[in-house]
Amino acid sequence: MANIGVVGSDGAMGKALRDVIDESGHDYSGGADKGDDVQKLAAVSDVLVDFSAPSALQTNLDAAVKAGIPIVIGTTGLGEAHHKAIDRAAQDIAVLQTGNTSLGVTLLAHLVREAAKRLDSDWDIEIVEMHHRRKVDAPSGTALLLGEAAADGRGISLEDNKESGRDGNTGARKEGTIGFAALRGGTVAGEHSVILAGNEERITLSHSAENRMIFARGAIRAAEWLRGREEGRYTMEQVLGL
Ligand SMILES: NC(=O)C1=CN([C@@H]2O[C@H](COP(=O)(O)OP(=O)(O)OC[C@H]3O[C@@H](n4cnc5c(N)ncnc54)[C@H](OP(=O)(O)O)[C@@H]3O)[C@@H](O)[C@H]2O)C=CC1
Ligand SMILES: O=C(O)C1=N[C@H](C(=O)O)C[C@H](O)C1
């Protein structure tokens, strides 16, 4: 059993995490939100789980490093500087960062990588996502991780081949690019489709999140798995043994 501290505890994910911690038999060591002292929380926790905001990331990493405990980062909207900060922290502690902690999306990413590996670059790859009206970042962290999986399967860099926010006279689609489209509205927990569009045929690989409990359960499973691991940066695929 572990003492699990949650950053972003009053948010939608924070509430789902507290429910899952209760049902799992672990102890909830406390929560932190804007203005709270994360170091105090880390000092009484065996592991931190962070679903808050990119602006909180460095503070959360510093607190975990100082306490010498692992951290699961589910926060999305992270940029290059955030990823470098995660890499630095992973030299001292075990860190797992992912845009989606669910079993279904982790498996979907695996399938997307395999499909992209086997299909030539004249199969266009487009990723469509829809989320609730409160979501502040686009494309979603999941869409980006699926894009990374597709790029990895193709042996290309996503950064150099990403197309998002098409509008106006865009010109014809450039072969080999990976396109993103983001829809926002209502209370949708998370819908993702990866469309592989070939000549006269199309494959669609999709995932639908029916509620946030799937993310919370995956995050707690990751927290359990990280406990006692040596320093390093880990993935959900490793947690699930895929
Ligand atoms: N990886 C995954 O599987 C998933 C990732 N997410 C991601 O998790 C994050 C949170 O999502 P969600 O719960 O819906 O968002 P909410 O807006 O409902 O909750 C965010 C929480 O974080 C708090 N917060 C904001 N800034 C800070 C800060 N600087 N320090 C500490 N706490 C802070 C907020 O407090 P306040 O209200 O006071 O600002 C709020 O309690 C998002 O980035 C989202 O994309 C969500 C679902 C699944
Ligand atoms: O903000 C959300 O709600 C979600 N965020 C993650 C993302 O950006 O992909 C995961 C999930 O889709 C829900």
What's the arrangement of strands in the largest beta sheet? 2-1-3-4-5-11
Q: Helix- and strand-based class?
A: alpha/beta
Query: How many domains would you count in the coordinates?
Result: 2
User: Major sheet: size, sense and barrel closure?
Assistant: 6 strands, parallel
Remind me, CATH topology of the largest domain? Rossmann fold
Order of helices and strands: EHEHEHEHEHEHHEEEEHEH
Which outline best applies?
A: elongated
Tally of helical segments: 9
Helical coverage, percent range: 25-40%
CATH superfamily of the largest domain: NAD(P)-binding Rossmann-like Domain
Span from first to last CA?
Answer: 25 Å
Rg over C-alpha atoms, rounded to the nearest angstrom:
18 Å
CATH architecture of the largest domain: 3-Layer(aba) Sandwich
Distinct ligands, ions and cofactors found in the model: NADPH dihydro-nicotinamide-adenine-dinucleotide phosphate, ligand LZUJQKHR
Beta-strand portion reads 15-25%
> Which parts are unreliable, with pLDDT below 50 for 5 consecutive residues or more?
none
The total count of strands amounts to: 11
- Average pLDDT reading: 97
GO molecular function: 4-hydroxy-tetrahydrodipicolinate reductase
Subunit structure: Homotetramer.
Domain Dihydrodipicolinate reductase C-terminal: 104-240
Binding site for NAD(+): 8-13, 74-76, 98-101
